[in-house]
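To fix ideas, we reproduce below one chain and its tokenised fold.
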Amino acid sequence: MSPSKLNMATRVVKQVSALRADFKVSVVLTLIPVIVAISMGLTACGDSKVIIPGADNGLVSTKVTMGGNEPIWPNDDPSVPDGGGVYQAQNCAACHGVDGKPVAGKSTVDFSSKDWGRQQKPVDEYDFVTFGKKGVEHPKMQGVLRPSQIWNLVFYVRSLSTAPLTDAEIADVLPVFGANCAVCHGTKGYGNGPLMKGNTLEPLPANFQSFPRFFDRTDDVLWDHIANGIKWEGMPNFLGKVDKKKNVTFDRDYCYKLVGFVRHFHESNKTEAATKEAHQKEDKEDKQPPTSTKPQT
């Protein structure tokens, strides 16, 4: 072999050796995390168990499905009467009084105050009862009460300042709502009134049956929307107007009564069992074919 070819071959051998050395180092570096994991017991050939530090059962925490501090919405309208039972069972009156008036030295919040009650969002009250609040000494009900019980309690507390409309009051307001509001919001508040045929309205009329939306509204905000309207959204103002056919003046108090009517779509003045029965009856009626209005011949 000529000296030039020998030198070339020698250089090739050295380059190959260097590449092999780099490859070995790369493989070793790649395997280090695996070796460390095995030594720490995170995985092993004969044991597929995954160990999570802090888990309460060695596999996974039983609290993993509880989520963070997010509200769990109810499956049906919260029941004010059943909330009264929770208020009594949890002895809330010891601090907040039977009628919501604070007990001296134990509470400063007056649940019976309309001004206070109208400024509270249901979801904020739920969060406070469920998760507590930093800097405020109050028992947390997460894990003590079911979410549905907490929602019932929230709406019972709200009723101490503003009672829900009775069935008679709902029946009295219904024709006024039907003549002035149902054209957009629908007779049952789903936001599907006659003007919504073909989805012609933008933005869409509010769905009063939506828990996330209306549990995030105070009564004062709802009153403002009814009284003063919502600019650029098609919601008219009603304060000061008169419905002559229904003999109703939309004054301050009547606008608050309409707030109560809106609330009745997502709260109940009946027990949970009675509320469920009433909704089942409504669903059954909705599924029945419409009655013919053609004159008989």
